[in-house]
Design brief:
The protein is an alpha+beta fold. The chain folds into three domains: about 120 residues, DNA Polymerase III, subunit A, domain 2 (DNA Polymerase III, Chain A, domain 2, Roll), CATH 3.10.150; about 130 residues, DNA Polymerase III, Chain A, domain 2; about 110 residues, DNA Polymerase III, Chain A, domain 2, CATH 3.10.150. The chain contains six helices and 25 strands. This is Beta sliding clamp. One of its GO terms (molecular function) is 3'-5' exonuclease activity.
Length: about 375
């Protein structure tokens, strides 16, 4: 194999694919990236057996061929090469090492045979549709923070994607929850998503898809089967296994009868919560909201360091109510709101609260209260 290509192209591609490779591997081949030079292009592939990223970049191929080399090693080498340099990749005659040359730099890397490299892209995809990168980013950004990190409830360790029928027609919806909070976002359902199975996309895959969405105008082609998802954007193809589990009936935890409405300036609220929570304990993080006619008082008490209060003007005319929340969870939700005013729909101090944008209704958040 011998190929010559731009350092910029190679670095950009390695940045995408090397992230998939775990730094500690018991299987040596999984520490490597597969390089395949043919037809005027270099194809790079990396996998951890659950997730695979493949990218194609232009190259001048003098001798077609394929090999695998340590992913993090070649990424670090190329990252440190001078800007604008040309990189030559050439395997030795005995196919034991790969030589990388750029200007006066020369590296020799140990190889493993490409026949040992696993392939994740087997099986047929039953559903396919196209979303804009802006829609995919909206679905992920709005819900990602609520993904559970509790490994025992593995079916919550991802984002649940499915098509639903609503009063506004069919919608494509993303939901994530960790049992303490729930985030839901939706966009118009793309053609081809009707009848798709509900799928749970793992946390790591969600993060990688998010990082690959560089242009909001780009299209993302999604293909699904019962066990895998494949996302293609430009020259990058990401394939991942899905979480094999049943996502809970989240509709049951979205409150329908919360009749107390409170509206507050999003930024003022966010800053006030951030300020008073400065003295909260790492373990507690509780902030109490005391609501009365036209005002809200935020209070944090920490027996070890003291207390803090702050008053805000709000739109609220229902009976007085005191309710406590995890301050970090409040800030996470406030950061996802897009309008200037946040709408809280409350019931009582022990029931879940519904939080939405005042002017946008395609996202909603549910937050369980804390005892304070």
């Amino acid at each position: 194999m011998k190929a010559t290509l731009e350092r910029t192209d190679l670095l950009k591609s390695l940045t995408h694919v090397h992230r998939v490779v775990e730094r500690r591997n018991t299987i040596p081949i999984l520490s490597n990236v597969l390089l395949r030079a043919e037809d005027g292009a270099l194809r790079l592939k990396a996998t951890d057996l659950d997730l695979e990223v493949l990218e194609t970049i232009p190259a001048m191929v003098e001798m077609p061929g394929a090999t695998t080399i340590p992913a993090h090693m070649i990424y670090d080498i190329v990252r440190k090469l001078p800007d604008g340099s040309q990189v030559v990749l050439e395997t030795t005659g005995d196919n034991a090492t790969l030589e990388l040359r750029a200007g006066r730099s020369r590296f020799t890397l140990q190889m493993l045979p490409e026949t040992d490299f696993p392939d994740l892209t087997t099986g047929d995809f039953t559903h396919g549709f196209t979303l804009t990168a802006a829609d995919v980013r909206k679905l992920i950004d709005t819900t990602q923070f609520a993904i559970s990190t509790e490994e025992t409830r593995y079916y919550l360790n991802g984002i649940y994607l499915h098509a639903v029928e609503t009063g506004e027609g069919q919608r494509f919806r993303a939901v994530a929850t960790d049992g303490h909070r729930l985030a839901q976002a939706e966009v118009p359902a793309p053609s081809g998503s009707s009848g798709m199975p509900g799928i749970i996309v793992p946390r790591k895959t969600v993060g990688e898809i998010q990082k690959l969405l560089e242009s909001p105008e780009a299209d993302v082609q999604i293909e699904l089967s019962e066990t895998k998802i494949r996302a293609t954007t430009g020259p990058i193809v990401l394939t991942s296994k899905l979480i094999d589990g049943t996502f809970p009936d989240y509709g049951r935890v979205i409150p329908q009868g919360n009749d107390k409405e409170m509206r507050v300036d999003r930024d003022e609220f966010k800053e006030a919560v951030d300020r008073v929570s400065t003295i909260s304990s790492e373990r507690g993080r509780a902030v109490k909201l005391a609501l009365s006619d036209g005002r809200m008082v935020l209070t944090v008490n920490n027996p070890d360091s003291g207390s803090a209060t702050e008053e805000l003007a709000v739109e609220y005319s229902a009976e007085p109510l005191e309710i406590g929340f995890n301050s970090r969870y409040l800030l996470d939700i406030a950061n996802q709101l897009s309008s200037d005013t946040a709408l809280f729909r409350l019931a009582d101090s022990g029931s879940p609260t519904l939080i939405q944008d005042n002017s946008v209704d395609d996202c909603l958040f549910v937050l369980m209260p804390m005892r304070v």
